[in-house]
Specification:
heterodimer; A: 521 residues; B: 334 residues; ABC transporter involved in vitamin B12 uptake, BtuC
Chain lengths: 521, 334
């Protein structure tokens, strides 16, 4: 053991990817029996840092010391041998194998050329027992919940008797009960002098299990501070480099006529009798955890999530009525009426990454006379219109002929939003508008929301980012498991109020976690 | 000195990233063939190459617009066979002592074109509306169509079409240029306008690049997919009619190699097999390249079976080179 029980020390690590410096001179150390929190916005470099420590990437510059000895980690396998095990957000689990097969994947115990099944089973049982996980070794993974998958992943990491465990947002999809259990396990690991690097966005978790916090921003080391004595404002300040008021603009509320009316809609699987109303000139938040049905509401109104009961009225016109068999819900139809849904997953549903910015921006509007006559495109016009729109959004670098895949997350998000600006839109639905974007782009997106709202458009803000809802929405709906739990006015929308509806009724009153961002990055 | 070589290296990389492997391939072929044979660069030979290329150019263009949508057409060869058989049988059936040859030719061509577009339409319906993977749909279709074509003809060539058909469309010349070349130039020009200057063309790339995002942008993806298969079969039909006229007979076994070489021409021309990326000019060059290679190998009197080996190797090499190009371009762009 070296000085101070230091298990791991990272000294001035940099990681250069083609074109971006993902890590810039970062140092940190992890002591035996401590939980070291890594804190920072999306894209701050947390993932790259733990991937470098766990052998996925090699640092471009800098040194890594393990137990005081300078070490070059050559692979994930090598890192494991050195006692560093990571549980990443994206599970490395093969879903058609069993629990036991997954735990030993890649390091099966063999007798000659054959698997030693008996030994494998014993070892797997022993590992699960030690961790206190309630899992059957021969269960197939495909039937397990996310929490159980997480347990398997942890068991897999634990099998090699690690000295350092890395947990990347492990509670992102766990319920309160499962989280408590995970924290008990972490306490147990601590008592066994294992060092833990823990990534989270949730303030309350930091207070509950953390010992020290290292804050990263834009790939740079900002500070390492003890958890004791830190508070939310200080951490957010360190994380964003700004005070909260600079991030969220004030949006005037000029509530006008009702534009979208949802009356008792259900989809037969998740959504149950949802009724909501949205008016011109206001920002309405829909809050909820993943799987609460919050984005399904926006998707249903846009015609990409099937519903089977209820009524939807848009601009006074019935677009869906299960009793009268009216169903005009489809993207092309809703778009032509001025309803625009901006999806949460820009790579999957939003953008054609391998085409240029110009083509992406104009795609929804090519049918309009601005962009073409009956037969041919008016490409010169297209270029001018798109140039104007993206100048307004501050695309950088400003090159609309460049493929979208070559832009940063924040700028891709700007392109995604620009698609809605090529036509006359009366209602914008933003589904998680700031996932994976940097602070700069985030501020721009919020200002954009303010501008369109104050110009009389209606904005629906679907988000798991609670501060976003708290600071921007004039009114909020809270969803839980497909049911509408509450409608809150701006004054009533406090963290406590919203969070109290996020969880099961019976869990109310117990210690409840703040959900800062519940989606994966 | 050192930095200069580095800069040169960088420049070569940049050119390679921009243009792909094709120009390199073309230069290598032209140089080796003109050294190895006397007749390769002769005017007569080059004209032959130009005319021979037309059928493949059209087939490759037809293949390309489907590849752009993340699709694939393995039935393109049997479309050739079916159009050829239907065209010739219709003409033979109608052609008599007192019938006007041009009426017979037009009806025959319409019938052949109709049969080809019917196959395209069926492919389109299967892929767009029944969500059958293009690979399976067109593979199954090629079996069905090949079976029918052989069944109708018994596998023997159909002779007896009006002579005017091949005189005009097979061997004819307008202002000294072969008809097939003229037709091909017209079609390629039309396709250029289609994919670059029309909405539908733009949607080809968008659908291939990200079908879901395209749907959410308010575009009827199913209809456009269907329509793409229809247009593609129209282009294939033109090529099939020209080839039938050239052969002066209806053949149920023509076009067997077309699925492979049309895809090869596209791949060598840098069309992504995952959709959304591809340039028409490069596809045309890709097709010409393949014909050049075949022509050169013929002049060298290379065994035709070995020629098949060579084309296969070229295809693999082209794709490997293109993967490398994509990797390089990411390095340079970022």
């Amino acid at each position: 053991m070296s000085v101070n029980n230091e298990l791991l020390r990272v000294e001035n690590i940099s990681k250069q990817f083609p074109g971006t410096l993902a890590l810039d001179n970062i140092s940190l150390n992890v002591k035996a029996g401590e939980v070291h929190i890594l804190f920072g916005e999306n894209g701050a470099g947390k993932s790259t840092l733990i991937q470098t420590i766990s052998g996925v990437h090699r640092p471009t510059k800098g040194k890594i010391f393990i137990d005081g000895v300078e070490t070059v980690i050559t692979s994930v396998h090598h890192a494991r041998e050195l006692g560093i095990s990571a549980v990443f957000q994206e599970f490395s689990i093969s879903s058609n194998l069993t629990v036991e097969e997954n735990i030993f994947l890649g390091s099966e115990i063999t007798k000659g050329i054959f698997l030693n099944k008996q030994k494998l089973r014993e070892e797997a049982k022993k590992t699960l027992e030690q961790l206190g996980f309630d899992l059957e070794v021969d269960q197939s993974m495909s039937y397990l919940s996310r929490a159980k998958l997480q347990e398997v992943e942890i068991a897999k990491a634990f099998r090699t008797k690690p000295k350092i465990m890395i947990l990347d947002e492990p509670t992102a999809s766990l319920t309160e009960k499962e989280t408590t259990k995970l924290f008990e396990l972490i306490a147990k690991l601590k008592s066994e002098n294992i060092g833990i690097i823990y990534i989270t966005h949730r303030m309350k978790e930091i207070q509950r299990i953390g010992d020290r916090i290292t804050v990263l921003r834009d790939g740079k080391f900002i500070d390492t501070i003890p958890v004791e004595g830190s508070n939310e404002n200080k951490l957010v300040g360190l994380m964003t480099g700004r005070v909260v008021d600079q991030i969220f603009p004030k949006i005037k509320n000029n509530k006008g006529d009702v534009r979208l009316k949802i009356d008792n809609i259900s989809d037969g699987t998740l959504l149950e009798n949802i009724s909501m109303e949205f008016c011109a000139g206001e920002v309405v938040g829909i809050a909820g955890l993943v799987g609460s049905g919050k984005s399904e509401i926006g998707r249903a109104c846009f015609g990409i999530h099937d519903i089977n009961a209820g009524k939807i009225e848009f601009l006074g016109e019935k677009v869906f009525d299960s009793e009268q068999n009216i169903n005009n819900l489809s993207p092309s139809c809703m778009l032509s009426k001025g309803f625009y849904y901006i999806p949460s997953d820009r790579a999957k549903e939003g953008l054609v990454l391998q085409r240029n910015v110009k083509e992406n921006t104009s795609l929804p509007s090519l049918k309009l006379p601005n962009f073409g006559n009956k037969l041919f495109l008016r490409r010169k016009n297209e270029k001018e219109v798109v140039t104007d729109i993206l100048k307004g959004l501050d695309l950088s670098p400003f090159n609309i002929e460049k493929n979208v895949e070559h832009f940063s997350g924040g700028n891709q998000q700007k392109v995604l939003i620009s698609k809605a600006l090529t036509q006359d839109v009366k209602l914008f639905v933003f589904d998680e508008p700031t996932v994976g974007v940097d602070v700069g782009a985030r501020i721009l997106i919020y200002q954009f929301i303010r501008d369109i709202c104050e110009r009389g458009s209606m904005v629906i803000l679907i988000s798991s980012d609670l501060p976003e809802i708290l600071h921007l929405a004039h009114r909020s709906y809270v969803m839980h498991r497909g049911k509408l739990m509450a409608e809150l006015s701006a004054e009533e929308t406090t963290e406590e109020a919203v969070l109290s509806y996020f969880f099961e009724k019976e869990e109310k009153g117990k210690s409840i976690n703040y959900e800062y961002r519940n989606t994966k990055q | 000195m050192n930095t200069e070589t580095q800069n040169n290296n960088h420049l070569i990389k940049r050119i390679f990233v921009k243009t792909g492997v094709l120009p390199l391939f073309l230069i290598i072929v032209v140089i080796t063939m003109s050294i190895a044979t006397d007749s390769f660069l002769a005017e007569k030979n080059l004209l032959t190459v130009a005319r021979q290329s037309t059928y493949l150019i059209l087939a490759a263009v037809a293949q390309m617009i489907i590849l752009l949508t993340r699709g694939l057409d393995l039935s393109i060869g049997t479309m050739f066979a079916m159009s050829s058989v239907i065209t010739s049988m219709t003409m033979v059936a109608l052609f008599g002592e007192d019938s006007s040859p041009w009426v017979v030719i037009i009806i025959g061509m319409l019938a052949g074109m109709g049969s080809c577009m019917l196959i395209g339409a069926l492919n389109g319906v299967g892929v767009a509306f029944f969500n059958i993977p293009p690979f399976i749909m067109t593979l199954a279709m090629s079996s069905i169509v090949a079976g029918l074509a052989f069944y109708i003809t018994g596998g023997t060539p159909v002779y007896g079409m009006p002579d005017e058909f091949s005189e005009v469309f097979g061997y004819g010349k307008v202002f000294g240029v072969s008809t097939p070349i003229i037709v091909t130039v017209v079609i390629v020009a039309a396709v250029y306008v289609y994919i670059n200057w029309t909405r539908m063309g733009r949607y080809l790339y968008a659908i291939g690049g990200n079908p879901k995002a395209t749907e959410l942008s308010g575009i009827n993806v199913k209809f456009h997919l269907f329509f793409t298969y229809l247009i593609s079969s129209f282009i294939t039909g033109i090529s099939a009619l020209l080839l039938t006229a050239r052969l002066e007979s209806g053949e149920s076994n023509i076009g067997v190699e077309y699925p492979l070489i049309s895809i090869a021409a596209c791949a060598i021309g840098g069309v992504s097999l995952f959709g959304g990326i591809g340039k028409l000019s490069n596809v045309v060059l890709g097709a010409i390249f393949i014909i050049l290679v075949q022509n050169g190998m013929n002049l060298l009197q290379l065994n035709s079976y070995l020629q098949m080996v060579a084309i296969g190797i070229l295809l693999i090499f082209a794709v490997v080179a293109d993967n490398y190009r994509v990797k390089l371009s990411m390095g340079l762009n970022n």
